[in-house]
Amino acid sequence: MAQRVQSVQEFLQDSFVPLVAALCSEEAERVTRKNNLGFCELIKPFCRLTSEVHMRDPNNQLHIIKNLKIAVNNIITQPPQQGAIRKLLHDVVTVSQPAEGLVANVITAGDYDLNISDRSVKASVPWYSSWKDTLMGLNTSTFYSATTPWFEAYRESFLQCMPASDHEFLNHYVACMLVVSSSEPEPVEQFLKLSQEQHQIQHSNEYSYPKWFIPNTLKYYVLLHDVSVGEEHRADSIYEEMKQRYGTQGCYLLKINSRGSNRGADEQIPDPWSQYLQKNSIQTQEPYEDGPYTIISNKNSDHFIPLDGLGNDSKDGLSNNYKSHPLQLDHTSDSSCFDGTDYVKANASLHESKKSNTWTPHGTCLTLTDHDRIRQFIQEFTFRGLLPHIEKTIRQLNDQLISRKGLSRSLFSATKKWFSGSKIPEKSVNELKSTSGLLYPPEAPELQIRKMADLCFLVQHYELAYSCYHTAKKDFLNDQAMLYAAGALEMAAVSAFLQPGAPRPYPAHYMDTAIQTYRDICKNMMLAERCVLLSAEILKSQSKYSEAAALLIRLTSEDSDLRSALLLEQAAHCFINMKSPMVRKFAFHMILAGHRYSKAGQKKHALRCYCQAMQVYKGKGWSLAEDHINFTIGRQSFTLRQLDNAVSAFRHILINESKQTAAQQGAFLREYLYVYKNVSQLSPDGPSPQLPLPYINSSATRVFFGHDRRPAEGEKQAATHISLDQEYDSEFSHQWKELEEQVVATVNKCTALSNFQPTQYCLNRYSDNSRFPLGVVEEPITVEVAFRNPLKVPLLLTDLSLLWKFQPKDYNSKNNGETKEVETCGKDMIGAEAISEFLMNSEETKMARLKLFPHQTGELHILGVVYNLGTIQSTSVLDGVDSSVGLQTGKYITNGMSVRGQQDLEIQGPRLNNTKEEKTSIKYGPDRRLDPIITEEMPLLEVFFINFPTGLLCGEIRKTYVEFMNVSKCPLTGVKVVSKRPEFFTFGGSSAILTPLSPSASEHCSAYKTIVTHSTSVCSLTSSADSSDFGVGTGSQPEVIDVPLPDSVLLPGASVQLPMWLRGPDEEGVHEINFLFYYESIRKHSKMCHRILRHTAVICTSRSLAIRATVYRSNALDEKGDGDNMLVFVDVENVNTSEAGVKEFHIVQVSSNSKNWKLQESINLSEDKDIKLANREKGKLCLKAVKCKHLVENYTFADIVFGSEQIISSTSPCADFFFRSLYSDLKRTHSQQSVHTSQGALDSAVRLIQKCGEVDLNIIVLWKAYVVEDNKQLILEGQHHVVLHAVGKEAVSFPQKQGFKKILGNSDWEDLEQESPEIGLFNFFRPESTSVPARPPLDQFSNLIKASLRYPEIFSHSFHQKSLCIVPVTLLLSNCSQADVDVIIDLRHKATSPETLEIHGSFTWLGQTQYKLQLKSQEVSSLQLKACFVHTGVYNLGTPRVFAKLSDQVTLFETSQQNSMPALIIINNI
Q1: pLDDT digit string, tens, across residues 508-534
Q2: Could you write out the DSSP letters of every residue in 678-715?
């Protein structure tokens, strides 16, 4: 907003000052030109009086005039042309720009801090004024704000350029100075000549311009004496003659040039003229289309109206700098292309003018005494000449008015008619309002009133001026002279405001009426604009910013873009200065002002307005407004050749989430590319510019070390390893880390590694990037960069590659010598792969994979990406059109516009949150994924799986081959494989590779080692094996398996195929089984110790067989004590679904594995050896197991063959899978028991009792499945394992889903649930501190004593002969424990219920009802009993109740256990 050092009152006073004309002789003009100044320019800095002036008003009251200023101008007889005025105002605004590099002004308005460049730092909030007033003692109420010097200059020039008009006299000349040099031959005659010339200009009809205040104009004669060359005596004599002729008050002798031009150059004299002469005047313009104008009095005269400092020196060649600028704006300039030609021409012209318009010193011949003389001259002229003349004129006009006051209105009207004999006839009101109204002759009494009012206003007699304006206003309105009335209203309002003491409020409605009249009726926009400029300042001084803004906005129109722009800008500043700042209105009107500035050709001001408005709109979510502003800023900046600003503005359009249409975004992008291209052309050798598109998600950058995975070749499937196509899974990553740590710990023969760091082939945002990653020479480094196109138009990136820096180092040398850095060059060090074309469709996120090939060891730093950014024609790929075809052919229809630039890859590390300092501050750790260390060559292993299945039956055995290939130039060794599922695969035992296959096995592609059997019996065939042969020895880790490579070394380029057997997991479903291959280099490396290769096998298993097995002690006890045999019941059920295509399963062999037991024979009653199970069928096998004769450390395998071939179960792969499965089962059981069992070790007694029921017998069921697939029958093989832990407990071949059933089996689970609470489930979780003694479950006591009844199954008796039938029964008791046991046999029937009687029948035992005996360890004892029956039937003899306790215990473990085995006897009658 316009902000002046002076107050509003001073501004209004200086806007209307007495005008004095000047006519100079040529000689006088020559004298002043010694100082590079004209006469009017010479006296301009001294035209303000420094002291008060007194004069008498018509009432003879003393009136004080303060700070009076006069304006002295050369006479020009042509009014200023409108084109010239427009040009002058345009140039005034153009040259007045905000100072660059100064402190920015911060306006705080609400939540906004607005930066406005300005020389002064002033706040725009109301309290600032009161604070300043208090501090400095000011009496004004001015609100300070950001200054707008261009508006001040415009307003000043506009007011001074106002042409004189007939309806007012403010711009009419009051007096005329006639200036003659004392060096002329006849100075007095020259004065007469000039006086006649002035009289002719004023009174002849030849000249209508300039305007004169009164016919009798004051003439003031000035004799100019050049002290340096003239004769002072002659000058004094001429001056004496002048005083006699014109009087002492009508002439003056002015002595100047006291200093010669060639001396005193080193003396510093102040130059008060420079501030006035930096601007242009109308007279320096070339003639315009409005017609030529004439300068009277002197060809070199250059002043016409007091421009208050807008003068220039035309004689010395200081011509207009902007004469080539058009007066009318090219309204299409905003939409033209940025070819830069307009600017180049203008810039060249400006550059030339700057060279010619060098600074010229002024007043070089003047001394400070001369300055005082000029100042004294102005005071003498004003005191003795001008003011007495004005006072006299006011009195004359006042006397004329007083003489009419007593007359009636009618008489006064008649007098007016007499005075105005040549007045235009009156018209109707409507007619008058449609024109400018009446035209009064110069002698009209209404004009005399107005003339008096104007004179009073010029000499600051505002009260009398207001009275006269008010009177004239009424007369003009009565006559419907609207132009005159508007002028009177305007000045009446200003006079009312300027009256001292403010006796009446400011009549703003006067101004409103005047503005409306000027604009709508008189069609005179200049006068309306003057009203607005004056009234707005008055309203702002009264803090009526809203009214001021409305007034300024009202005058904006299409006829003048410059005026509209300036007024809109001032209105915007009004909004920001309100008590409650209206920031958004400020911004909106600044945008409007910027638009009008642009149309007016004021590019710099337009840019400034848009930039200031951007501060409000930025970051508020008004994206469309932001885009418009940034686009305009970009264009204006480009036009002004502020290319960096243009690039920045266009960058903001593209990087924000734009809501523009695709077409608009395409236009933005093309403009941006054009601007960027111009920037890059200015500095072709400079650094690549930073491109804003496409977006790069730096944190999503992934770095992969190694070659790409090979595709599958026929039956060969390469190891999956790691690739960028795999999604990151934290759980899997942790599993891989555990596997690697396990194998490294095994190799290093330790359980845990303190400083273990896993090998990382793929680095992403989730990986540990705190360490420098390791790359290997000659192995590619792939960087995946995540690009996102935020626009709705496609982007085409060409020649896309990585930007890097490399520092070679030799890690083998002792000093690790460094060499100089080599940036983005040296293909012999780092090879780079470029993507020729990379197309991104609208709003697409796309990954680009860029490769580097290191050829030397050292430190590599990946800095960013470099590419050409362009776009394609909208018809090629847009709105979902498939781009794949174009991408494959590599041909796009581009629009020919692309720029080369780069984007940096800067990845912020994870936030640190470990220490207290890190938690209380924001600190980020390093992320070094883009800074790999390139190490020396390492071996590289590739693994191929041949005929690897994707689907298996549960338990199915399949033989495949694995090929190991060394594709590097270094030999490798120490190959190991580790997996969490070692039971899934095996490479065979130590003798597996050397074992030949039988012809039959080869014929059927059997995975087992078999031999042909000719025996028709189903007796077992035994063999033995050690678990350590199969990698399950004590202390070893079966998860880590040595790969049996020949010579344990794989040479460069060599490959070897090894057999590998697979076994389908026991649970159906999809299984992901992870293999981790570990290998080392023969030569030790300082940076990299080992390498790994990952493979994930996906196997889908379907159900095959469900096997349940239970072992019972055999009742076949005899008195010899041969009780070491058991019965094994095996239930086999075909649970396969029909979708698998399995016709039927054949049980071909059942094998046992134990250190203590072995299967002896099958006691199935069926004579059919072949056991076939169709879909959903179940088969039951009963097998007899006997104890091994000799205890051995090795496991004993016993095979019961149901087919024609025996599978040797003690060899690979049968034994491998058995031992691995056994180990996994034991490991799982141990881990779960360690969780659930919280008590300490059980005491010895309990352990003895538990040991009685334990068996260590494992069952292996081998089967074949016949599958029909593609009309071919295939034979599949497999095996299931059942681990029997205890007598009577059912074991299954596949684990249950419940945790406890996995450990205990179903039957025990049910027993536990039925037991009393004291031996219930909670006992497993009893804390160790409890003193309750451990108590075994009830069923474990049944294993202490084995009881068996010997009796005839059918007993015939003649009940007719003898009514009682007595049958002898032998009860055999066997002590199964290693301790002495006290046994009590109770023959009394426990139950008396009718149901029990029905079951047991009505029989009784004869003899003793209770027996007590003691059995030694492993002792077998018999007891003879007698049973008595009274009638025929079937009876159950198993009623004796046996109680047992350890002999050295009291009663703690005594309990009764009834034999649950039924003992049925049939009693027949003979």
Answers
A1: 999 999 999 999 998 899 999 999 999
A2: HHHHH-TTSPPPBP--SEE-GGG-EEEESPPPPPPBTT
